[in-house]
Amino acid sequence: MEAADFNFLLATDSYKITHYKQYPPGVSKVYSYFECRRKKGSPFNEVVFFGLQYLLKKYLTGPVVTEEKIQEAKLFYQMHFRQAVFDEEGWRKILEKHDGRLPIRIKAVPEGRIVPRGNVLFTVENTDPSFYWLTNYIETMLVQMWYPITVATVSREFKKILAKHLKATTGSLEGLDFRLHDFGYRGVSSQESAALGGAAHLVNFCSTDTVAGVLMAQRYYGCPMAGFSIPAAEHSTIISWGRNREKDAFERLLDQFSSGPVAVVSDSYNIFNACKHIWGDKLKERVMERSEDSCLVIRPDSGDPAETLIEVLRILEECFGCSLNSVGFKVLPSYLRIIQGDGIDLRSVNQILEKLSDKGWSAENVVFGCGSALLQKLNRDTLSCAFKCSYVETNGKGMDVYKQPVTDPSKRSKRGRLSLRRNSDGFLETVESGAGKPEEDLLVTVFENGCLMQNYSLEEIRKNARLQDDEPTPISHNQEPLNQRIINGVH
Questions:
Q1: H/E/C letters for each residue in 86-116?
Q2: What's the pLDDT score for residue 202?
Q3: Domain residues of the chain, as ranges?
Q4: Pathway of this protein (predicted)?
Q5: Sheet containing strand 180-182, strands side by side
């Protein structure tokens, strides 16, 4: 749906349109915030903040309220609730007083910033006292931030694992940005999911087949070309030759893509036979003619990933030989590499690389592809994303508010106006109850009264998200009480 056709008035949980009737009389300010709550036992201690700029540009910037959209929403909600509960007068006042622009202020962490869980990521408040109900009306849309944040966070965890093994078995991080290829386009729920998730992966890596993500990075984050790919076979292009002509199918790919890397799925029938008797025998000279810049990338696509890779590497070593790198691990000839895209998630990629190094193989022999585990096998609870009201003003008097359910202390919400600062130890922390100093606040006004106030480039975001040895925010996974503490204003 194009932004011009999008009706913002219908982009919320329907029960929220009745909330203007539920707030206390005299309320003039509602202030809320978004966080990824801390959760014991979670593998994720920190998050990558990404994706808000897209939502703001696509859906909230400019005049989003028109008379036509008011009438459409009025008719819809009349039918939906079977009674007149829609605030037609309130929305028309936004149209008349603010030219259809939303009187809202959003302050947020700069995109790409790495933030320990349990800290504020963005705040929302109304700028016109007449529209106090608007703050939480837009919760539904803004909480969908859980998706790009979670994908960017998962992708970065992959990067940490790959960096660890690459450094240990090669002595460097060369090529790290191309070690994880996004295979997830077909495995997500929609084109927009592919775009948001695909772009979130590109915060950390430059390797993808998810065109929608590259286009989003281009259109909303100012990057002419954020991700790259290479020619690659799929099973249909191999099996269409028939079982007896697998060698011909492989040779066709070598002919058609004689320069530049090419990936060939080689397990349509028997991956071990293909590696030993076709690549390692019948086409051996053709493979050896290729260079590092035009390498053959063999793709297994079934079986136990670690066991299959180890056997494939053994066969290729037997056929083509190998050498030892500067830190003593085995490396295939530069014209030959492997991509493993089946059965890949955070746990398996670590296990695979551990088993390969145990057998003496360098991580540089293999790159990985990841689909649903990167873009789809996650939800809002993966990082415990929540949007809560923490401050209100009624009859000119401010009050800190919060929830504190007796049955689940982890759902206790923050109180008052919030800021994010770096403490004297260098760790990020949230200051509650309006006690923070404005000059220390790391939250930046990104949206105000219908206007985008910041415009981050993907280049800036990637710098913010770089790994720990370079990043501006020191993170210690072993010091959770220190690096994730919340400072209450009363202290």
A1: CCHHHHHHHHHHHCCCCCEEEEECCCCCEEE
A2: 98
A3: 8-150+384-457, 230-372
A4: Cofactor biosynthesis; NAD(+) biosynthesis; nicotinamide D-ribonucleotide from 5-phospho-alpha-D-ribose 1-diphosphate and nicotinamide: step 1/1
A5: 180-182, 366-370, 336-340, 296-299, 262-265
Check whether 237 has a pLDDT greater than 50.
Answer: yes
User: Are 116 and 39 in contact, with CB atoms under 8 Å apart?
Assistant: no
Nearest-angstrom CA–CA distance, 301 and 267 = 6
- Model pTM score: 0.94
Q: What is the length of the chain?
A: 491
The pLDDT value recorded for residue 5 is: 78
Looking at residue 469, its pLDDT comes to 60
pLDDT in tens, 29-49: 999 999 999 988 899 999 999
Question: Residue 137 is which amino acid?
Answer: Y
In order of 46, 116, 151, 233, 235, the CA distances from 140 in angstroms are 23, 23, 19, 41, 41
Q: Dump pLDDT digits (tens) for 288-309.
A: 999 999 999 999 999 999 999 9
Residue 1 has a pLDDT of: 47
Closest by CA position to 389, among listed 418, 354, 357, 360: 418
Please enumerate in sequence order all residues whose Cβ is within 8 A of that of 457, keeping only pairs 6 or more positions apart, or say none: 221, 222, 223
| 73, two tokens | 């929403």
Q: Using alpha carbons, select from 189, 191, 160, 188 the residue that is nearest to residue 173.
A: 160
Q: Which tens digit of pLDDT belongs to each residue from 367-397?
A: 999 999 999 999 999 999 999 999 999 999 9
Q: Which tokens belong to 6?
A: 């999008």
What is d(CA 13, CA 423) in angstroms, rounded to the nearest whole number?
38
For residues 342, 348, 351, 357, the Cα torsion angle rounded to the nearest 10 degrees is 40
What does R_g of the chain's alpha carbons equal in angstroms?
26
In the chain, DSSP finds a helix count (H) and a strand count (E) of: 17, 19
For residue range 6-19, what is the model confidence (pLDDT) as tens digits?
999 999 999 999 99
Q: Given a cut of 50, is residue 473 above it in pLDDT?
A: no
Which CATH code fits 8-150+384-457?
3.20.140.10
Which is the CATH superfamily of the domain at 230-372? Aldolase class I (3.20.20.70)
